[in-house]
Write a structure and sequence with these properties.
Layout: E1 5-8, E2 17-19, E3 28-34, E4 37-42, E5 46-47, E6 52-53, E7 57-61, E8 64-66, E9 78-85, E10 88-94, E11 97-98, E12 101-102, E13 106-110, E14 115-118, E15 126-133, E16 136-142, E17 158-161, E18 166-167, E19 182-188, E20 191-196, E21 211-215, E22 220-223, E23 235-241, E24 244-249, E25 253-254, E26 257-258, E27 262-266, E28 269-272, E29 282-288, E30 291-296, E31 300-301, E32 304-305, E33 309-312, E34 318-320, E35 330-336, E36 339-344, E37 358-361, E38 375-380, E39 383-388, E40 392-399, E41 405-413, E42 419-422, E43 429-437, E44 440-449
Antiparallel strand pairs: 1-38, 2-37, 3-4, 4-7, 5-6, 7-8, 9-10, 10-13, 11-12, 13-14, 15-16, 16-17, 17-18, 19-20, 20-21, 21-22, 23-24, 24-27, 25-26, 27-28, 29-30, 30-33, 31-32, 33-34, 35-36, 36-37, 38-39, 39-42, 40-41, 40-43, 43-44
């Protein structure tokens, strides 16, 4: 019998970015973890090397890559954004049909029936932003009309879909609410913020450039900052984290403060984020309990090299994720099965190792450290024995380094009474062991499988 490995709290192993099942053949623009799968959108045509046709959309599962649209997205075949609305996955991009259904640039996928359907007749241009707000689906992009002719409507750039009807954000100015393209939405302190590539609201109101507030009650676009204190360049990403609204983009100043590429709105006060990138741009923000993940084209933050992706902690400390990701851009981030996934138009990590447009960070994102041995794990392959100081009950999950769940079971621990489980046969390698209860992680660690 091999000697037992006794683990207290969490283990630390070498961490790196790894390929996801061979990746895709062209860039990834959107990631969405939902229903136990990771949905992946972009302008690719195949996934997993060249084995599976997947024009614009596919999903990564415990069994590897799966196609969910046959045929895939037609026309330009690009999926830029995804969200969930009324139990269906909504995809937006630049396409004329998907899954055998005619759909103009926006469509819905029902994972229960595995069918696609159009959304309100679609829109006549590219969709670049989706957000669910107060029961409605908000849509932003480079379009000028919504719905199907001859019943289409002149609503440009920003539209609302309530499940049956398209609406303008401002019915009095449906074609001129925003003079440009919305790229991000976020609700903060009871207000809906809109960021993007628009240079003004309505005809010439430049005090609403790049960032504005949409007031649903009055159905108007309102200023989000004092006159003359707007961002000096576009806003690409918005996220609420740590009780603040974080704003990412290509700007140098915003709200009267100098905070390149990333700033925060605390209530009504704009604040600089120390160590924010001084070059490149921020394109995606992912708020988590572990910190704020930031992706884009930047190469350094807080005086250290990070290469296009970094983690900002609640105390303001920046951390690199290994060597980062190589040229050119991290465009999408998502947590899936406890692991961080990144998508973009990159083809390698920061050290030059190949990555095909999608990668997974090999370290779990919610490792816990204990000042006392709350849970002790004795590992003598293939047996795991748990001993807890207090009564605990939760779901035990064993996953591989790509986030695929290999074994799941309920675990009930009584105080100081060992509980032993038998693991399935595992190839040599490193695996993530997690214990969760009521959506909280009680224990998360990596364990080796010995040859």
């Amino acid at each position: 019998m091999r000697g037992a490995i006794v683990i207290v709290g969490s283990l630390v192993f070498a961490q790196s970015w790894q390929s996801v099942g061979g990746g895709t053949d062209l860039p990834v623009h959107a990631l969405l973890s939902w229903g136990g799968h990771l949905y992946v959108g972009g302008r690719f045509t195949t996934v997993g090397g060249t084995a599976l046709q997947a024009q614009g959309i596919a999903r990564w599962t415990a069994n590897g890559w799966q196609s969910i649209a046959t045929p895939g997205a037609g026309g330009a075949g690009k999926i830029h954004v995804m969200t969930v609305y009324r139990g269906k996955i909504i995809v937006g991009g630049e396409f004329t049909g998907i899954g055998g259904t005619n759909a103009n640039n926006i469509a819905a996928y029902d994972p229960v029936t595995q069918t696609w359907s159009p959304v309100g007749g679609g829109v006549n241009g590219e969709v670049l932003a989706l957000y669910v707000y107060d029961g409605e689906l908000l849509v932003g992009g480079n379009f000028t009309r919504v719905g199907s002719p001859p019943n289409d409507q002149p609503i440009a750039a920003f539209a609302r879909w309530d499940g049956t009807t398209w609406k303008a954000p401002d019915p009095l100015n449906p074609s001129y609410a925003l003079m440009g393209t919305p790229l991000a939405f976020a609700e903060y302190n009871g207000k809906l913020y809109v960021g993007g590539l628009f240079y003004a609201a309505y005809y010439n109101q430049t005090d609403r450039a790049y960032l504005a507030i949409w007031d649903k009650a009055t159905q108007q676009i309102l200023p989000a900052y004092p006159v003359g204190q707007g961002p000096d360049n576009p806003v690409y990403a918005l996220a609420v984290w740590n009780n603040k609204l974080y704003i990412g983009g290509e700007f140098q100043t915003i709200g009267g403060v100098v905070s390149p590429r990333l700033a925060a709105l605390n209530g009504t006060t704009y604040q600089a984020v120390p160590g924010s990138p001084t070059s490149g741009r921020v394109e995606v923000l992912l708020p988590t309990a572990n910190g704020l993940y930031v992706g884009g084209t930047f190469t350094s933050v807080g005086g250290q090299t990070v290469n296009r992706v970094a983690l900002l902690s609640a105390n303001g400390t920046w951390s690199a994720l290994g060597t980062g990701i190589g040229p050119w851009t991290v465009k999408a981030l998502a947590l899936h099965n406890g692991f961080l996934y990144a998508g973009g138009n990159f083809t390698q990590d920061g050290a030059g190792q190949p990555l095909n447009y999608i990668a997974v960070w090999s370290a779990p994102t919610a490792l816990q450290s204990f000042s006392e041995p709350i849970i002790t794990v004795q590992y003598c392959p293939p047996f795991l024995t748990f001993t807890a100081q207090t009564a605990l009950q939760g779901t035990l999950t064993l996953s591989n380094c790509l986030g695929q769940a290999l074994h799941t079971q309920t675990l009930s621990l009584s105080p100081n009474i060992p509980e032993t489980i038998h693991l399935p046969p595992l190839p040599p390698g490193l695996y993530l062991l997690s214990l969760t209860s009521h959506n909280q992680t009680l224990l998360s660690m990596k364990i080796p499988s010995l040859p």
